[in-house]
Amino acid sequence: MNWGKLKSxxxxxxxxxxxxxxxxxxxxxxxxxxxxxxxxxxxVNILKRNGILIEPSIIDNTxxxxxxxxxxxxxxxxxxxxxxxxxxxxxFEMNFSKKVSNTEEMKNILSDASIKDxxxxxxxxxxxxxxxxxxxxxxxxxxxxxxxxxxxxSRIMGEWYEVITxxxxxxxxxxxxxxxxxxxxxxxxxxxxxxxxxxxDIEYGYYVTNKNSDSVIYTAIPCxxxxxxxxxxxxxxxxxxxxxxxxxxx
Length: 250
Prior knowledge:
The chain is of the alpha+beta class. The chain has helices at 3-32, 37-49, 103-112, 179-186, and strands spanning 52-54, 69-73, 83-84, 92-96, 118-125, 128-135, 138-140, 145-150, 153-158, 161-165, 197-208, 218-228, 232-237, 243-248.
């Protein structure tokens, strides 16, 4: 028996088996974290029968799961230079002599205030603009900075946080409620508009859960924001699918 050839054959065989196992694991993981197109289309059809229009393309077909993050309000930082709004734990204002007339100048003012990492929610126009904080590519939905132009210059007002622990993916998807299930739950939401409506945007991000407490460190949990065409926003816990709150941004 030629042991050299047998040894080479066994090595190649083991390599092929390992490659097969790796490919199988990748395919299994992809199936586990990917929502079938049939499920998405079924969801679109059910929503339509209940007077809710939605384009299939805005329904994310990936199952997402990230860890909670912790935050510290900048109003509780030692180097905070703004002014707290009376009667509020976290809302502050800062005034500047510079005037703002467009979005680029708004960004410059925010930079002067050390406000970074955000999404422009409303482009600056008619003396007003807003931004939402983001971290690790995810929006923190219940943070909002308003920038307005006034006779003395400009003012920024709102809530902002120092991110203590950043988003980190969790590969355990066993108990995650998928987005189509959340959309079906939206049908029975008593706070949604009456009559025909259209879901115009869906985004995965974070929501601060205990920001009205006296705690120095807050927790933000992953959630889905469902935006309806009349600018109403509905927030659902991205893990258990429960409805959290509703905010309206005009």
